[in-house]
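WARN  no MSA supplied for this record, continuing single-sequence
INFO  ligand: 2-(butylsulfanyl)adenosine
INFO  echoing inputs
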Amino acid sequence: MAAAGKAERAAWLRAELERHNHAYYALDAPTIPDAEYDRLFRELQGLEAEFPELLAADSPTRRVGAPPLKEFPPRRHGLPMLSLNNAFAPDEVEAFDKRVRDGLETIATVDYAVEPKFDGLAISLTYENGVFTGGATRGDGITGEEVTPNLRTLRDIPLRLPGTGWPALVEVRGEVLMYRAAFAELNARQRQRGDKEFVNPRNAAAGSLRQLDSRITAGRPLSFFAYGVGAGGDGLAARTHGDLIDQLAAWGFPVAAERAVVGGCRGLLEYFAKIEKLRPALPYDIDGVVYKVNRRDWQDRLGFVSRAPRFAIAHKFPAEEASTEVLGIDVQVGRTGAITPVARLKPVFVGGVTVTNATLHNADEVRRKDVRVGDTVIVRRAGDVIPEVVAIVPEKRPTRDLFGGVPLHPPFALPETCPECGSAVARGEDEAIARCTGGLFCPAQRKQALLHFAARRAMDIEGLGDKLVDQLVDAGLVHTPADLYGLSAETLAGLERMGEKSAHNLVAAIDASRQTTLARFVFALGIRNVGEATARDLARHFGGLDALLAADAAALQAVPDVGPVVAASIAAFLGEAHNRQVIDDLRRAGLSWEEGQPAAAGLQRLAGKTLVLTGTLPTLKRDQAKALIEAAGGKVAGSVSKKTDFVVAGEEAGSKLEKALELGVTVIDEDGLIQLLEKGEGQ
Ligand code: IVH
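INFO  complex generated
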């Protein structure tokens, strides 16, 4: 790009960033995801660094936010509220640590105070002689919006500091946010009242705090975390940032429980990895971690560059939100016939993967969000969660104008018939989900049902994957799970990508699955609301299949953990003649299991055995595992000794696992435990 081209680009970036600043700070209605804003911001910073003549006085890189809204009185901060520079990769963290050591002229390892980066909005609280006298949002960093009456409604904010050791005036800095659970409740309430829902907890927090009527704020579940001080900070005894946070905690401010002090770049990166893992389990959103030089005198020595301190940096997680375009809206038919609208997207990199489809959950959601083909949408993918469409960007909706333009697509409507089998689509009263009424007549449901039947945790038929199931169903060879048991190696060998050897292996796997357990069999049937744990409860309670088949809804509710909804769906499943037929056919095909006695008199496979549970198991909760072991006559102990027979270890198992290995005690995982319960020892 020629220099002139760069000037043009910088001007465009400046205008674009200002526009987004306004939408974000003044209107609480972001038009692009944070990550994209960051990208544009960094591009402009890069250009300005390379060509200093492009650094205009009014460049958004020179200030922190947007001017305060007209309606709130302006409030000047005692000390400016600055921002943080961002790092996205380990080498940027390394460069930060190097800059810090260079600045301090030391080669020693520097200690850093580290804490989560709360994803809310920054607030400054002023205390005069220990009394809360006013608070403001960040605004442009120099002057914020005074929201004192609103802040007084937050229970997390002390109105008076205890003791006497505070400076005559001190500004406490921190973040107002909304816990995820509180956000979900608030949105449910908004929905019930027909009010607009919030896109995410941060926007909900901002929208709730920036209310002109503080009674509205008082009804919103806002929280506060303190992470620093502004004016008056010099009057505090704390030598380090860690001590400062302890002081704030002693005054009654909530502070991050996950805070720590670590040494050097290595300590920073280890902390990052730890918090990244912890992130999904935290009750509130964070978008990274913040590293600060721990010694406050060193912080002063390092000082500030134009908009950010040199002694701190934010290490951000990969963006979980990105925007892209909707190419189409399809519907998918699930195993239970549930019809799910799915947005087909222009591929976009988000949450660490390229996403091409995102769920729209159900027809109501699509209507509420008014997602249409051609829309630009914000897509979110957090952790391993299925990507979803969060919201549309209304400004980017294509509109028809006098000269043509792109026509606006009509609102999404559910198909009246199933796209897979043509059966009617029905939706029960009060149900969010519409379903295909075709049952196993519907190939989509049949395919999903077969895959579920063959799954590892169900009948465990190795080699029966989705490509094969597609072929078997499409060729009309398999209608119900029972048909699998009639397949011959010759028939299978005729299918695509099926050699003679794999055909024989599959027949052998199908054959082997005949010998199973009642719990697996019940789970494999794919009854709505009956997962693995419920299937096990049912098997244990009834002991045999006939007793289960004879049970009505009331008898089903006698099973521990089976409530009216689950009982009703089991009863409905068993009430269908074709399901009974499939069960009969399967029995006739030779499926068998050891039948036990009903209820508590079940087999005492763990009689006399002592087990220790440690770590998080993939599906069983701790008390469920304990109940299963005790029902089988075993004992659950709290610590490992030579007398322990088995240690059941899940994720993040700690010292108990080490002890077991040291003593040579057999260590098993959840699968191993289930094997023990189903088959006993030595299998
Ligand atoms: S320290 C000089 N610590 O991130 C600025 N900021 O991008 C010192 N934030 O405006 C800020 N959690 O709103 C700090 N633990 C934390 C934080 C945190 C969230 C926000 C804050 C700040 C923004 C900077």
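The first strand starts at residue 74 and ends at 76.
INFO  checksum written, moving to next record
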